Amino acid sequence: MSVGILAMFQEIQGCGCSDVHTVRADYKHSELDCVGDGKLVFITAHRRESLDDPMHHMFRVICCVLNKHPECKAVYPIHMNPVVRQAVAEELGDCSQIHIIEPMEVFDSYNFEALCHLCLTDSDGIQGECRLTASRFY
Question: So where are the chain's domains?
């Protein structure tokens, strides 16, 4: 993360974004080791509107795009919803570039958002958080 972004977070503190102080320049996580020098893609998907066919389609597209970009490695903290877990198992289980992990704490999520090259999410909240970290999101 750039020094400029960290400075921006420090300025924002106290302006209604109570959790931005949790983004740390010295952040470490074991899943980041799997990414190495690659480009981190952070994935979240859980919204009710995305379930079933839209989610399956979204996961197939993500897998296809990642296969075309071997420099990218994705981390997906999977949602607890069994419908989401089933879709992930069916569509992403064979994609070697995606590390599917259990849900992460908010602190970790904010830091992954700040470090990622791209965030793929169906969450309006995470889209807003990515705006604060200057991360690309879709």
Answer: 27-137
pTM: 0.71
Strand order in the sheet with 72-77: 98-101, 72-77, 39-43, 118-120, 136-137
- For 100-137, the pLDDT digits (tens) are 989 888 778 788 777 878 877 766 556 556 555 545 44
The CATH number of the domain covering residues in 27-137: 3.40.50.2000
| Exposed/middle/buried for residue 34 (C-beta within 10 Å: 0-12, 13-18, 19+) | middle
Sign for the CA dihedral angle at 62, 49, 31, 136 comes to positive
| Cβ–Cβ under 8 Å, residues 66 and 98 | yes
